[in-house]
Design brief:
The chain is mostly helical and 429 residues long. Helix content is 64%, strand content 3%. It is elongated and about 90 Å long. It starts with 18 loop residues before the first strand and ends with a helix.
Length: 429
């Protein structure tokens, strides 16, 4: 929680390997962003490779509003403004929230000087008087950071739901089926037409690769690739004044949450993909393919749906949601995105394909080892390859060791918990 000064100082432009919300940039940077929106690659920032990206992701939004003092400062300032606008202004005019005369009975008549205005007036009536009080309450919630930390709680609950969903699929759709399976010999000798079986067998092997193409090419699946954006935003905010001072503990908290979102959750995909494609196959190619695409659009899209839930519950205006979900990213960020695609999809795709084929050879709980191996794989990669790409600028200027050990400890503890939970299956007698 932020306990520092009320006044928020806007940020300069992000460095080439950083990403920041456009809402918290200073006046000069905001002008350059407006030019980038208008002129694109012909603008000053466009020529340097900067891009504007809209990402309605609950983890990114909750992260920056809880680390930055922007909304806290905005809320406190508006609480003063709401009260000031409830009384006459310095020039004698009515305040925006001051009760205004309202025509109650008489109807103005055009052309009749005595009746061009209503003849009976009354102050504001009914529930309209509660609007300034409602505004005041809402801005107090922003100023006290209540709404910001509600967003953090929603982000944590989203992670918990994703992990529990993946765990339940392992238990109900894999371990409950072991050792029942159809071997390659049994599949070949089934008393069914062999051509449909052969075609769908090949289809199950390549359907995950088509899902990868869907995630890469279509905007509605981009949250499937949001892990580098979450990590880059955390690093960018941690390098600012707030992340190194009064929001330091919040940065550590978000290191733990980000580790779950970018390492733990994605590590389940290889095994769960094979389980859905192979074990739950009904033999109906169209129906099975539809289920696969729905599930793997559903799990990543939870991040965006949770953001919509926050906007609805907190009564956030749509223009504010759009503005606060728009980020300015440096030119080196695209290198990180492309690298992450290879890191994620080749590892997940190869293991998914192998498991689909191995399931037909022998169904054994030993395949569970793919999950802890993936934990360690993504942990090591996130701690190494960003430095290989950009060198020392990716290092945290203050608190780097704490951030590193928080990330390492989170993954190792969850790996230990996973092995302890499934020990009887990972080490069968």
């Amino acid at each position: 929680m932020i306990t520092g000064p009320m006044e928020f100082h806007p940020y300069d432009l992000p460095l080439p390997n950083q990403i920041l919300p456009c809402a918290i940039l200073n006046e000069e940077a905001t002008g350059l962003v407006a030019e980038l929106e208008a002129k694109g690659k012909d603008s000053a920032l466009g020529k340097l490779g900067y891009e504007i990206k809209e990402q309605k992701n609950v983890f990114m939004w909750a992260m920056w509003v809880s680390i930055s003092a922007y909304l806290k400062d905005f809320g406190y300032r508006q609480t003063v403004q709401v009260q000031y606008q409830a009384v006459p202004q310095d020039d004698g005019s009515l305040g925006l929230n001051e009760p205004k005369p309202v025509n109650v009975f008489s109807v103005p008549q055009a052309g009749v000087p005595q009746a061009e205005e209503a003849t009976f007036f009354a102050p504001w009536l009914g529930c309209r008087c509660s609007w300034p009080c409602t505004q005041l309450c809402w801005f107090y919630l922003l100023g006290s950071q209540f709404l910001q930390w509600v967003a953090v709680v929603v982000a944590v609950l989203t992670i918990v739901f994703q992990v529990l969903l993946l765990e339940s699929m392992i238990v109900a759709n894999f371990l409950a089926e072991v050792p029942h399976t159809t071997t390659w010999y049994e599949w070949w000798t089934l008393d069914e037409p062999w051509l449909p079986r052969l075609i769908w067998l090949l289809g199950k092997v390549i359907v995950f690769w088509f899902m990868i193409g869907n995630a890469v090419n279509f905007d509605d699946s981009q949250s499937f690739l949001a892990s580098p954006e979450i990590r880059l935003l955390l690093r960018s905010l941690a390098n600012r004044f707030e992340g190194q001072t009064y929001a330091y503990c919040t940065v550590v908290l978000w290191t733990i949450i980000s580790e779950f979102a970018t390492v733990i959750v994605v590590s389940y995909f290889a095994l769960v993909s094979a389980i859905i494609i192979n074990v739950e196959s009904t033999g109906n190619a169209l129906g099975d393919a539809t289920i696969i695409f729905l599930i793997f659009d559903f799990i990543p899209e939870l991040d965006g749906w949770a953001m919509g839930l926050i906007a609805f519950a907190a009564c956030l205006p749509q223009d504010f949601v759009d503005q606060s979900s728009t980020y300015l990213q440096g030119p080196r960020c695209q290198v990180v995105y492309r690298t992450y695609r290879y890191v994620l999809f080749w590892w997940t795709g190869i293991w998914t394909t192998l498991l689909i084929l191995l399931f037909r050879y022998q169904m054994t709980p030993l395949y569970l080892w793919v999950v802890p191996a993936s934990f360690l794989y993504f942990l090591v990669l996130w701690q190494t390859w960003p430095y290989c790409l950009d060198g020392w600028p990716v290092c945290f200027p203050h608190g780097g060791p704490c951030i590193f050990w928080a990330a390492l400890g989170t993954t190792l503890l969850w790996t230990g918990f996973f092995i302890l939970r499934y020990g009887c299956f990972l080490f069968p007698c």
